[in-house]
């Protein structure tokens, strides 16, 4: 069952109330975000037993599914959506707080595509979104035309050991304290944003301030699922023969270039793009640079309506 865009808007994070300021690029980003929100109202639908809020735009012959990072907010990808919507039907979801595993996330996305009448789609995800993208390929590979994995984590168990204590803290601490700790952790990565930092710092601060305990636990639960079952799940990807692009940032401390070698063992024939000088926040700071890589992979030209992907 779907709801109207105005009803769905009430379920989205109220980022419109955030006050952004600053010269030049920060002001330009504010204007671009305001214009995007005015022309891309969210909608809501029941999919696989959960309520999904999402943005859909474009009218191309093919579709692309853009999967957000840990924040789980669709409009964070507004520059990518506006770049790709002349060529594709673009769908970007908000992650529901009730979805606790990667398989459930993948099944919900498949149901969302069904509601939109989309049989197959290109899939693009960065960081946390890359985990979700891989789960979608694993669970619904026949529906994936190609996959773009950006700043992709590798399931090393020593990293996963950190998730369980974080989940205990999220369950026991007051939600306000959990949000403060999360905001503090994100600050390290915000410093890596070289362009538009003031805008994005305010955006992510507002997003985290809106998180419920359930939102935080859901993200951590999905991460735990990834680190516990990730290696076994990756083996299943060797049977998928679609086109894959793995994008690696040279200065990414969270998903370093060495992790790419491990990923390549599970994606036969994948293309690799190394982004010199870029960090884990490179796609946020330099969208034009990353979009140029993705449009080349997809076979489209910005400003042209053709697609050969």
Please provide a written account of the structure.
With 309 residues, this protein is α/β, with parallel strands linked by helices. The protein has one domain (20-298): Alpha/Beta hydrolase fold, catalytic domain (Rossmann fold, 3-Layer(aba) Sandwich), CATH 3.40.50.1820. Helix content is 47%, strand content 17%. It has helices spanning 5-9, 25-39, 78-84, 102-115, 128-140, 157-160, 163-172, 175-190, 197-209, 213-236, 257-264, 282-285, 287-298; strands spanning 2-3, 43-47, 50-57, 62-67, 88-93, 121-126, 144-150, 243-249, 271-275. The longest helix is centred in the C-terminal third of the chain and has 24 residues, at 213-236.
Characteristics:
309 residues, alpha/beta, Rossmann fold, nine-stranded mixed β-sheet, 9 strands, 17% strand, globular, disordered N terminus
| Count of individual beta strands | 9
Helix segment tally: 13
Q: What fraction, in percent, of the residue positions are helical? A: 40-55%
**Any low-confidence stretches, pLDDT <50, length ≥5?**
1-22, 304-309
Specify the overall morphology: globular
Structural class: alpha/beta
Q: Average pLDDT across residues? A: 86
**In the CATH hierarchy, what is the class?**
Alpha Beta
């Amino acid at each position: 069952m779907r709801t109207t865009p105005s009803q769905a808007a009430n379920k989205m994070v109220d980022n419109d109330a955030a006050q952004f300021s600053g010269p030049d690029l920060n002001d330009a980003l504010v204007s671009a975000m305001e214009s995007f929100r005015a022309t891309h109202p969210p909608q809501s639908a029941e999919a696989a037993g959960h309520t999904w809020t999402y943005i859909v735009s474009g009218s191309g012959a093919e579709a692309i599914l853009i999967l957000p990072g840990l924040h789980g907010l669709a409009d964070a990808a507004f520059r990518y959506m506006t770049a790709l919507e002349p060529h594709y039907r673009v769908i970007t979801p908000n992650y529901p707080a009730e979805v606790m595993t990667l398989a459930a996330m993948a099944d919900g996305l498949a149901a969302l595509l069904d509601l939109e009448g989309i049989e197959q789609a290109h899939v693009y995800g960065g960081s946390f979104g890359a985990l979700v993208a891989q789960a979608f390929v694993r669970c619904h590979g026949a529906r994936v035309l190609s996959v773009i994995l950006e700043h992709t984590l590798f399931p090393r168990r020593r990293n996963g050991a950190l998730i369980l204590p974080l989940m205990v803290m999220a369950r026991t601490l007051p939600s306000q304290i959990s949000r403060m700790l999360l905001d503090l952790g994100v600050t390290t990565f915000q410093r890596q944003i070289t362009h538009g930092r003031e805008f994005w710092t305010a955006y992510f601060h507002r997003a985290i301030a809106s998180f419920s305990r359930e939102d935080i636990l859901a993200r951590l639960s999905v991460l735990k699922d990834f680190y516990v079952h990730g290696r076994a799940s990756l083996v299943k990807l060797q049977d998928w023969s679609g086109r894959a692009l793995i994008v690696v940032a040279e200065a990414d401390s969270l998903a370093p270039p060495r992790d790419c070698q491990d990923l390549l063992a599970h994606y036969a024939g994948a293309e690799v793009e190394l982004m010199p000088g870029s960090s884990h926040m490179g796609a946020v700071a330099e969208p034009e640079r990353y979009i140029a890589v993705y449009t080349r992979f997809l076979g489209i030209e910005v400003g042209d309506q053709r697609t050969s992907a």
